[in-house]
Amino acid sequence: MKALLAVTLVLTAQVATPDLPTFEFENYDGRVVTNAVFEGKTTIVVPTYAKCVFACPLITLRLTQLDEALGAPADLQYLHLSIQPEEDAAEEILSHFGDHEIDATNDLRWLFVNAPGNDIRRFLDHTGIEIERTPVDGGDVIRHTIRVWVVGPDGQTVAAFDTYSWNDKEMRDAIHFSLD
Predict the structure, then answer these.
(1) Is residue 162 within 8 Å of 147, Cβ to Cβ?
(2) Which of 1, 60, 71, 76 is the most exposed place for a label (fewest CB within 10 A)?
């Protein structure tokens, strides 16, 4: 089996971004997830990869810390979007969540969706997420744009950050704005 190393292209600061395109993906547990998932909840959306060894685990760690600091509100959910849909099987996804002490089978606020590669590619192209896969001895290096969206309960993008090291005050302000 090839070893994979994920590396990210990191930009900084909050960015303006259009609303997310219409989508229909499948959660790791088989549930269909569409834009309707946004209704009535604030959602943090992040393109990620379950086998990533650096940025994606760091983002999930930051999200769990944020969730804990906010008191795990029922109207805040997390939507991880696989950038490697052919490789992110349920076992890897559950392992990724388990590494962060997320019990996604009982805490349904944590989603990790997948879809056929072309569907994911259209979503990523629309949102400006770039993925570069470079073969190296023993596997591939995967580089991808980091982007974290805060989507309000009306499905409109409230904020977007092009970094896994977002400004905590800006992130909390965006979440609280959409929760209010």
Answers:
(1) yes
(2) 1
85 falls in which pLDDT band (50, 70, 90)? confident
Record the tokens describing residue 32, joined without a space: 């269909």
Contact 110, 102 (CB under 8 A): yes
Count of helices and strands (H, E) across the chain: 4, 11
Q: Is the dihedral of CA 60, 66, 72, 73 positive or negative?
A: negative
52-63 confidence digits (pLDDT tens): 888 899 999 999
- Which sign does the torsion angle of CA 176, 144, 120, 28 carry? negative
- The total number of structural domains in the chain stands at 1
Q: What is the pLDDT of residue 2?
A: 41
* 101-122: pLDDT as tens digits: 999 999 999 999 988 778 888 9
Domain extent for 162: 3-179
